[in-house]
Amino acid sequence: MDDISGLLPRSKNDIDGARAVVQAGYPAVAPILGELTVWLKDYNWPIAHLIAPFLSSIGTPMVSHIWHVLKSDDHVWKYWIIELLLLGLPQDTALEFRPELERLCYTPSDAERREELDQQARQVLAHFGWV
After folding, report:
1. Angle 29-80-14 (CA atoms, 0-180°, nearest 5)?
2. Does 124 fall in a domain?
3. What is the mean pLDDT of residues 108-123?
4. What CA–CA distance (Å, rounded) separates 118 from 102?
5. What DSSP string runs through 66-131?
6. Per-residue pLDDT tens for 12-62?
7. By the 8 A CB rule, do 111 and 75 touch?
8. Which of 2, 18, 47, 75 is the most exposed place for a label (fewest CB within 10 A)?
9. Residue 101 domain-assigned?
10. Are the beta carbons of 21 and 29 closer than 8 angstroms?
11. Structural domain boundaries enclosing 23
């Protein structure tokens, strides 16, 4: 496929589209990684269950896309990115996020605490033996 953006799922129920993305694999989908993270805004969406493990398996190339989400104001999206992607990263790649995870764990804003980002961050920190 010449235009990889044609692989982007069309809706939260586009299981065939999500499967096509996974089947195309990385690095073929590298140009659309950012758009694919959008489908992790809500893990209740059916395609998120296919997209999340795939994106998590990519590792280091996901770093800039994860940072994009962590720097956003969408705390629910952050919650899912922390749970679904950070826990699956290799430790050396996850180390990039340690300072932000520590900030979320120990000094979250009220809004971050309401969305349980402090608990999610603690879970990742514990997973890697950093707490």
Report:
1. 50
2. no
3. 98
4. 9
5. HHHHHTSS-HHHHHHHHHHTGGGS-HHHHGGGHHHHHHHHHS--HHHHHTTHHHHHHHHHHHTT--
6. 999 999 999 999 999 999 999 999 999 999 999 999 999 999 999 999 999
7. yes
8. 2
9. no
10. yes
11. 1-58
Are 71 and 94 contacting, i.e. CB atoms less than 8 angstroms apart? Answer: no
How many domains, in total, are found in the chain?
1
> In the numeric block, which tokens belong to residue 55?
């994106």
Q: Is residue 85 part of a domain?
A: no
pTM: 0.95
For residues 42 and 84, the answer to whether their CB atoms sit within 8 Å is no
Taking each helix axis as running N to C, give the angle between helix 63-70 and helix 75-84, from 0 to 180 degrees, rounded to the nearest 10. 150
Mean pLDDT score of the chain: 96
- 77 in Cβ contact with 69 (< 8 Å): yes
